[in-house]
Structures are given as C-alpha cells and as structure tokens.
Amino acid sequence: MRQSRRHLLQLFALNPLLAVPSARAGYNIWNNEFTFTRDEIQAAVLTRFPVTARYAQVMSIRLANPVVSMDAANNRLRTRLDARVENPMLGAPIDGRLSVTNGLRYDAARRAVLLDRPGVEAVDVPGLSPIYAQQLNSAASVLASEVLRDYAVHTFKPEELAVGGRRVEPTDITVEAEGLKVALAFR
C-alpha cells in the first residue's frame, strides 16, 4: 500500500498536469484521458472570429459571436454564429444566424485537436427570399469550410504528451455533454 501511494506521489511530482482539477483541461491519471471543458473550446473558437468574406464580388458575409455546444449523440461540436449579409441588390444589410457542425480529429504533426468536416446545419435569415437563401447557404458552406476546417481547438504542449517519463499519443476523441475527452495511449 505504501509503495502504491509513493508511486502515485512520484507521478504527480513528475507531471503537474495530473493534479489539474476537472474544471479545466487536464490529464486524468485514472482513465488515461485528457479532457477539455466546453468553455475552453468556446474560448479557442472565439479567437477565430469575427470573419468577413466576399463572394462573386456581390455578396459579403460577416460571421461573429460564435457559441459552441456539444452534440454528444453525433460526436460533433455545434457552433451557432451571428451572420450579416450585405448585397447591393438587398438594400440594407440582413442579419441572421448560421449553425455549423464539426467533427474532430488529432493531427500528430501539429500535436493538435482540429475541427474537421464542417457542415452548415441551418441558415436562418428572416425575410430573405428563397433564391438568396439558397445562394447564402452555398456561400456559408464555403465560408464555414474555409474558416473552421483544420482549426486547432487545442495544441498539446510537449509536456502534456508525457506521463511519468513515457510518451503518450492521443487516439479517440469523444464529444461529451460538457466537453471533450481525448483518450491517450502509451507509445
């Protein structure tokens, strides 16, 4: 019993991330996982916005104020964005919302958890004619792909990928109700 307790204390001394409370990202020694809270993912996504893109020299779309939520049932992140569409044919700018879903993947070369396979789930722009709504949906899909594909929501520091002097490699990424769980395997 004393030897087990001493071994645990040595692990904590070797890697201070093991003692990080679950309220923020950290390594969980008991199940060999790294976790991130929804708030940490939200903060990472916030740094990417606002963004504005122009399409066909006619339409301008500004995306801002992302709100991230977890879609555990589909293992995806959802991001709701405020959208402002400007087009000379529309007259005044039109405001609405865009909802995008993203998968997640680990990129070993970048040591990062990346957003993957973004897809526009819904475009809600009240008062926009169906013809413009279809164009906006197409433009929004391109913009979401440009802005969110391969965007890093966390880049691991070298010390986060070492436990007790051994290297670990992220494997499965699971979206949970309150955050992300990244399984780690010893190499």
UniProtKB/TrEMBL annotation:
Keywords: Signal. Gene3D superfamilies: Uncharacterised protein PF07273, DUF1439. Residues 1-25 form the signal peptide. It comes from the Bacteria. This is DUF1439 domain-containing protein.
